[in-house]
Predict the structure of Probable GTP-binding protein EngB.
Amino acid sequence: MNVHNAEIIISAVSPKQYPETDLPEIALAGRSNVGKSSFINTLINRKNLARTSGKPGKTQTLNFYLIEDALHFVDVPGYGYAKVSKTERAKWGEMIETYMTTREQLKAVVSLVDLRHAPTQEDIQMYEFLKYYEIPVIVVATKKDKIPRGKWNKHESIIKKALNFDKSDDFILFSSQTKEGKEEAWQAIEKYL
């Protein structure tokens, strides 16, 4: 998809705030510093529509982005960030779970993991959660440019093994620096639109 129009529509915390449209939605989930905002900005050819921040854990709401009047990207709060209280984290968890399990417009979730590290317990839980609820998932391993090419396969297999990865899901190596993986990510997303 070639994106010329993208805008943030609403930051929601509960279902009554979700946009009332039938447009398909693709949610983006991942650890706080995995590069979610950079991924969104790369896909929509923008520098900073999704705010990147040196302070992980900034997204605390479900942010709905309207893309080309054709779909919504829904940026969900990053998980696993230590500076947030347990009660705050539990609230986010509930908000994300409510959205993902009740929203009919949700077509797939892009689950972002960091290619440099083995998946965290939360990464694994997110993947298992999506599989359990039979929500289509696209795993995107970010920060590909930070690892020498010769080690990509090794890192990919570590992640797939930890996730108990289902071969029928898409797995994409991605770099917001070099834009590698951008086309593949759009192809995977478009299958669900």
Notes: Helices lie at 36-43, 86-102, 121-132, 152-163, 182-190. The chain has a mean pLDDT of 90. The first strand starts at residue 6 and ends at 12. The beta strands are 6-12, 25-30, 62-67, 71-75, 106-114, 137-142, 170-173.
